[in-house]
Automatic annotation (TrEMBL):
Signal sequence residues: 1-24
Subcellular location: Periplasm
InterPro entries from the UniProt entry: DctP_fam (IPR018389), TRAP_DctP (IPR004682), TRAP_DctP_sf (IPR038404)
Family: Belongs to the bacterial solute-binding protein 7 family.
Repeat found in the keyword field: no
Protein name: TRAP transporter substrate-binding protein DctP
Key words, A-Z: Periplasm, Signal, Transport
Length: 336
């Protein structure tokens, strides 16, 4: 009897130990390329609030890998697909594995951030997430925001597409951006991000385009005199998780993770909007001239840029081109 009691106690201790070890192994690795500072970084803020909620409401552990610690966005997406990283917060990289997501880059498709939020949080966003899940094995838990992109230059104030004629703009090496700038009358020049400050300083290009927060936080406003708040492209963050990992969680943990991601996306949006407003104020205080186009002027930009980009996307997407029409319908319904 004494032996049986000791054996039972040992077995119980071993079982508890193994359970504890298994529990400790349930760790969610969250990676992104932005700084970790929650006050200025939308992805940083989203990741930290995600961690706080998940760890506060479950036994799951969350490890954060900010500032590209695990690689660039393309690498983070691949790692999530391979199960090496459980959660990735990415923007442009998503359209490379789920081409339908590129419709979100149609210039001037969203008239404001709230319109974009309503579309992405509504049926269109849910359908796109389901489609991308089928394409990639990554479940989109929520959408965040990287902000609207705006043109800056060091030559003249831009109020219409005609003002862009002859100006060289640094763009990302993405065909959609090349088509957009060409259709607006500018000369698109693909240049690596790391080479941009030197290109602006030496006059290799006259201008560039980025969200306001990116422009201010990287000191680009010190190299450019004019900014036009045309908001030509709205950047969405995708908070994605390996679906295989997600399906392996208990229903209760799935609920916590999903809830945390939705709040994280909202937090990221709030930080990005604050960063934009604060950035506009600061660049003006430091001497930059900022112009906010009228509704009629934005329409002129849209009329010039959208047809060429949409034609390009239809050719690239093939059967997935239906997502262009679905997005246009969702935006129209939301605005009504």
């Amino acid at each position: 009897m004494r032996f049986n009691l000791k054996a039972t106690a040992a077995l119980a201790a071993l079982t508890i130990g193994l359970a504890g070890a298994a529990q400790a192994e349930t760790t969610i690795r969250v990676a992104h390329v932005d700084p970790d500072d929650w006050q200025t970084s939308k992805k940083g803020a989203a990741a930290q609030i995600f961690k706080n909620i998940v760890e506060g409401e479950s036994d799951l552990k969350v490890e954060l890998f900010p500032a590209g610690a695990l690689g660039n966005e393309d690498e983070l997406v691949a790692q999530a697909q391979e199960g090496l990283t459980q959660v990735a917060i990415v923007s442009g990289a998503m359209s490379k594995v789920c081409p339908a997501a590129s419709v979100l880059d149609i210039p001037y498709i969203f008239s404001s951030a709230p319109v974009a939020w309503d579309v992405l949080d509504g049926q269109f966003g849910k359908d796109l997430a389901e489609h991308c899940l089928d394409e990639t094995g990554l479940r989109t838990l929520a959408y965040g925001e990287t902000g609207f992109r705006n043109f800056t230059n060091n030559t003249r104030e831009i109020k219409s597409p005609a003002d862009m004629k002859g100006l060289k703009f640094r763009v990302q090496p993405i065909p959609l951006y090349l088509e957009m700038v060409k259709s607006l009358g500018g000369e698109p020049t693909p240049i690596a991000w790391t080479e941009l400050p030197n290109a602006l300083s030496t006059g290799v290009v006259d201008g560039q385009e980025n969200p306001v927060g990116t422009i201010y936080n990287n000191g680009l406003h010190k190299l450019q005199k004019y900014m036009t708040l045309d908001g030509h492209v709205y950047g969405a963050d995708f908070i994605v998780i390996s679906d295989e990992f997600y399906e392996g969680l208990s229903p209760a943990d799935q609920e916590v993770v999903s809830k945390a991601a939705r709040i994280a996306g909202t937090m990221g949006r709030a930080i990005q909007e604050w960063s934009t407003a604060d950035g506009v104020k600061k660049v003006q205080e430091e001497g930059m001239q900022v112009y906010s186009p009228t509704t009629e002027e934005i329409k002129a930009f849209a009329d010039a840029a959208q047809p060429a980009v949409i034609d390009y996307l239809r050719g690239e997407l093939g059967p997935d081109a239906e997502w262009i029409d679905r997005l246009q319908t969702a935006v129209a319904d939301t605005q009504e």
